[in-house]
Write a structure and sequence with these properties.
- This protein is an alpha/beta fold.
- It has 2 domains: 5-206, Rossmann fold, CATH 3.40.50; 225-385.
- The chain has helices spanning 31-37, 44-52, 77-82, 100-112, 124-134, 160-170, 225-240, 252-261, 285-293, 321-327, 338-342, 383-400; strands spanning 5-12, 65-71, 87-90, 117-122, 140-144, 176-184, 197-206, 244-248, 271-274, 277-280, 297-302, 310-312, 332-335, 348-351, 365-369, 375-381.
- The strands form 3 sheets. It has a 9-stranded mixed β-sheet, with helices on both faces.
- Strand 15 and strand 16 (375-381) form a beta hairpin.
- It starts with a strand and ends with a helix.
Length: 401
């Protein structure tokens, strides 16, 4: 008797994530054209490879087989061909220029084909497009490939997707969970409401041992005296320091510091300060590297994404592996409200630097400063951790068989 099948509709948004390193805070509308003009390179294909390259490596008895359905060309079929994953190809999506209509039309074809899951590589905009067609009836799972990923249908790291698919193959029962679809209220850098998220609905996804990233949470700093005292102290130190370039990260926590320093700093960008004066706004990866090369002493003050616990790799892709290596981990000062840290479960932070050697120099623990006199030692999680965890699970299963 043949194994029952589980149909997966797979798609890639080719332009997702292109704006990150070049300081564009999304690829909505025509931002991807600006990203190309600034020298951005596509990232979604690489992250989808990370997600699926271990899919065929699982061994052992399977309860069901997975059948992929994907568009021919760059929106999915090319990658599956490269990884030698069999799939049913859909024609009509081979254009080199794609948009949200292509995603929505593909999802309609997936549903007509009776898929059990829509797997996509993209960001919040792609999640919105998929959800607009699938609603809560068809489960969806996101490979994190966007600039901002506030929705909770994404794995922490792309590598977690292969593990989820292997669980689907091996489990008798597939359970459904419900996850929020969110997006930034605006991707316009001039808008003051960038830290706000718009809610679009509740999607279905797959329950797994691999935890999905939580939705981004906004933590109010108005009643946090610890952060208020801390940024006052940091501002005084920056103003007194005459020979150090200070890079200040994006987000509401670091913006509390920027507001003390002056009016020329940005909420969502990585800015440069020297002797308390803003000498660079919303810098790209290449601009950051150029600034760093001009100074003997460089430090970075950065925050944490509330609800998700990401330190680097979401919303601040300008802070790439090359930039972090040039700064040095010993010169990175992390600040976060205590309530923001304690809102994470477990209390740990995530780093995804899109580099093959990204685990080489990353410390296991970092100090996060919550007030002038208090800090917390917090574990860092990287993609290698998720792979090692799964290898350990496989060893345990093998020993129990």
């Amino acid at each position: 008797m043949p194994e029952p099948t589980f149909k997966i509709g797979f798609l890639i948004n080719p332009i997702a994530g292109m704006g990150g390193a070049v300081a564009l805070h999304g690829t909505d509308a025509d931002n991807h054209l600006q990203a190309l003009a600034r020298g951005a390179r596509p990232l979604a294909f690489e992250r989808a490879i990370r997600a699926l390259q271990n899919f065929n490596s699982s061994e052992g008895q399977k309860v069901r087989s997975i059948n992929f359905i994907a568009p021919l060309g760059q929106m999915g079929g090319d990658l599956l061909n490269d990884l030698k994953i069999d799939f049913l190809g859909l024609s009509g999506f081979e254009s080199q220029i794609t948009d949200g209509d292509d995603t929505r039309n593909l999802c309609q074809k997936f549903i007509a084909a009776g898929v059990d899951l829509i797997l996509f590589a993209g960001g919040d905009g792609t999640a919105r497009d998929v959800y607009s067609v699938a609603g809560s009836k068809i489960p969806m799972l996101g490979i994190p490939a966007g600039v901002k990923m506030r929705s909770s249908v994404f794995t922490h790291f792309p590598e977690g997707v292969s593990q989820i698919l292997q669980e689907i193959e091996s489990r008798e029962k597939i359970e459904i969970i419900h996850r929020e679809i969110l997006d930034a209220a605006s991707s316009d850098s001039t808008m003051g409401n960038y830290s706000q998220s718009t809610y679009y609905g509740v999607a279905s996804s797959i329950k797994s041992q691999v935890t999905l990233s939580s939705a981004k949470a906004k933590i109010s700093l108005e009643n946090d005296p610890g952060i208020g005292e801390l940024v006052e102290k940091l501002a005084a130190e920056i103003l007194e320091n005459s020979d150090e370039l200070v890079l200040i990260g994006s987000g509401t926590t670091t913006f509390a510091l920027k507001k003390i320093l002056g009016p020329n700093y940005t909420l969502q960008g990585i800015d440069a300060s020297y002797q308390g004066r803003c000498i660079g706004q919303d810098l790209t990866e290449s601009q950051l590297l150029e600034k760093i090369s001009l100074y003997k002493k460089v430090s970075l003050i950065t925050g944490v994404i509330g609800g998700q616990g990401f330190l680097f790799g979401r919303g601040n892709q300008q802070l790439s592996a090359r930039v972090i290596d040039a700064i040095g981990w010993s010169n990175i000062y992390i600040i976060a409200a205590e309530a923001k840290l304690l809102g994470l479960f477990p209390v740990e932070l995530f780093v995804d630097l899109d580099s093959n050697g990204q685990n080489q120099h990353i410390p296991t623990f970092v100090r996060v400063h919550t007030s002038q006199s208090k800090d917390m030692l917090v574990r860092l999680r990287t993609p290698l951790d998720s792979i090692t965890k799964e290898s350990a699970r496989q060893l345990v299963r093998s020993g129990n068989e």
